[in-house]
């Protein structure tokens, strides 16, 4: 009787343990992504994105630019967080924390989505993948960046989840979720074309590979055909009340939802229609040129970045083993799909000459999933053994991988974020730059004009400085040295000798600050201005 009661309660206990484990992983992911979110200076690209959001926040204006800056979803999600923040802080709702909250929440959401693969890679496998995702230095670092990459990866994984669930259940809500995910993916970044092509090829390759393995697999003499069991599913109570829609209606509704979301975002909610939609197609002319001309690196650059011990070495090793095991065993069509997805994304992004560290997240996503699959296979093999040593070794391998990854994530995100020797700290703004911002704020506070104080910025636009000067109403930007009588001048370091020669009697050079590697800014204050 006691044994029966124990068996009856074990599934419930297992589900409770699963929920507790998921919650703990999500909390850890949240802490890594949300703590001290504003302490690090914005990157150049974050500053540009923030200034695109500013007119949308202040006056409701945003129009998609096909030549630069990717899709519109980042700015509209930023509008949500800044508007909510404004309820508490008024005009200061446009804050660094509010804009970075967008990728941070999507980064947490990525970890949450991984749990949906429990049925495909097992309980231990999905928990392992989620832990590695939560602690990944790259996913942590760029979940704290106001750029498009992490939302883009989220919609990629959401599309895969929704398609898998629709394939299992044939329920229309999953088809609609897949349609919405695809539309948001398309409206986030132009590189969706790479992602979609690779996903479709991975599906095709997995199908062909499994078919070939089945056809040419050696048949054992002892194998006997098993009699098929006829399973009659109990009728649903609401089957007579809610009839199932014909298939063409489901697909028509999904296409309509996709077009609605796509058009609304690219047309700036019909305020730039049809030009915005047309521009969303025209953009490939610009980005095709950019992809082969800017930030050119050798084909192996991503592998070099990802395999470094300071980045993603544990996940890359485990993920590589997962790809080998999945293709060798060929037991799970989904695992084979994951393997081809990881290989395809790595090959595609390696072949494109344009390379930046955050683009490595696209191939890293399926590789982390493969790492979870490998650990799950390892653990499940141990569960079939009389000795628990194999299971214990799988747990220790996971803990070691997560510890190494978490240490690197904490280091690069909280301490070494401007260390240019770390791949993810690509041309990041120096912490010294915030000293310049503090001095400008101090000079304004000692001046009766306050944030209306006059300022001239000379030289190439020193992003992200315009973001930090967003509340200053009297700032001018020029590319060269021009005569000025404004209280403050900020100039590129190489322009300092000319400023001192032509305006040295009116201004004194206060200090110079590192902006990013190889770029310095000099601060000049008019002699009657208090620092």
Question: Which spans have pLDDT < 50 for at least 5 consecutive residues?
Answer: 1-9, 229-243
Describe the sheet with the most strands.
5 strands, mixed
Structural class designation: mainly alpha
What share of residues is helical? Answer: 55-70%
Rg for CA atoms: 27 Å
Count helical runs: 20
- How many beta strands in the DSSP annotation? 5
**What is the arithmetic mean of pLDDT?**
91
Strand order of the largest sheet: 2-1-3-5-4
Instruction: Give the distance, in angstroms, between the N- and C-terminal Cα atoms.
Output: 82 Å
In percent, how much strand structure appears in the residues? 5-15%
Order of helices and strands: HHHHHHHHHHHHHHHHHHEHEEHEE
Give the overall silhouette. Answer: globular
Task: Characterize the structure shown.
The chain has 531 residues and is mainly alpha-helical. It is 61% helix and 6% strand. It has 20 helices and five strands. A five-stranded mixed sheet has the order 2-1-3-5-4, with helices on both faces. The relative contact order is 0.10. Mean pLDDT is 91; it is low at 1-9 and 229-243.
């Amino acid at each position: 009787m006691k044994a029966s009661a124990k068996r009856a309660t074990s599934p419930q206990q297992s589900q409770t343990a699963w929920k507790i484990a998921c919650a703990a992983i999500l909390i850890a992911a949240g802490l890594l992504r949300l703590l001290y979110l504003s302490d690090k200076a914005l990157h150049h690209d974050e500053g540009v994105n923030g200034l695109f959001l500013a007119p949308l926040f202040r006056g409701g204006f945003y129009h998609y630019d096909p030549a630069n800056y990717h899709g519109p979803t980042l700015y509209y999600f930023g509008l949500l967080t800044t508007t909510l923040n404004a309820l508490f802080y008024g005009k200061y709702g446009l804050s660094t924390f509010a804009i970075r909250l967008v990728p941070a929440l999507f980064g947490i959401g990525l970890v949450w989505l991984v749990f949906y693969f429990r049925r495909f890679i097992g309980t231990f496998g999905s928990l392992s993948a989620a832990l590695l995702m939560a602690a990944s230095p790259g996913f942590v670092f760029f979940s704290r960046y106001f750029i498009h990459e992490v939302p883009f990866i989220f919609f990629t994984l959401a599309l895969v989840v929704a398609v898998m669930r629709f394939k299992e259940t044939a329920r229309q809500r999953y088809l609609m979720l897949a349609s919405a995910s695809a539309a948001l993916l398309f409206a986030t970044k132009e590189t969706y074309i790479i992602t979609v092509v690779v996903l479709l090829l991975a599906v095709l390759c997995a199908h062909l590979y499994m078919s070939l393995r089945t056809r040419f697999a050696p048949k054992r003499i002892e194998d006997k055909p098993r009699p098929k069991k006829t399973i009659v599913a109990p009728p649903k109570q609401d089957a007579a009340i809610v009839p199932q829609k014909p298939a063409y209606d489901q697909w028509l509704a999904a296409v309509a939802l996709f077009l609605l979301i796509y058009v609304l975002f690219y047309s700036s909610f019909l305020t730039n229609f049809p030009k915005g939609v047309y521009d969303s197609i025209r953009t490939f002319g610009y980005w095709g040129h950019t992809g082969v001309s800017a930030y050119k690196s050798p084909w192996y650059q991503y592998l070099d970045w990802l395999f470094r011990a300071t980045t993603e070495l544990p996940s890359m090793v485990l993920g590589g083993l997962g790809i080998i095991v999945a293709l060798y065993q060929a037991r799970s069509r989904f695992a084979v799909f994951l393997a081809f997805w990881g290989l395809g994304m790595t090959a595609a992004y390696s072949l494109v000459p344009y390379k930046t560290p955050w683009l490595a997240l696209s191939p890293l996503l399926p590789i982390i999933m493969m790492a979870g699959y490998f650990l799950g296979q390892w653990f499940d093999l141990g569960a079939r053994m009389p000795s628990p040593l194999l299971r214990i070794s799988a747990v220790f391998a996971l803990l070691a991988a997560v510890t190494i990854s978490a240490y690197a994530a904490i280091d690069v995100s909280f301490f070494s974020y401007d260390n240019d020797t770390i791949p993810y700290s690509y041309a990041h703004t120096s912490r010294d730059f915030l000293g310049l911002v503090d001095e400008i704020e101090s000079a304004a506070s000692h001046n009766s004009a306050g944030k209306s104080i006059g300022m001239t910025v000379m030289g190439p636009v020193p992003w992200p400085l315009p973001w930090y000067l967003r509340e200053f109403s009297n700032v001018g930007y020029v590319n060269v040295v021009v005569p000025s009588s404004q209280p403050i001048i900020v100039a590129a370091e190489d322009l300092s000798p000319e400023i001192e020669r032509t305006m040295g009697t009116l201004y004194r050079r206060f200090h110079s600050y590192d902006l990013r590697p190889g770029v310095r800014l000099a601060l000049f204050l008019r002699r009657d201005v208090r620092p």
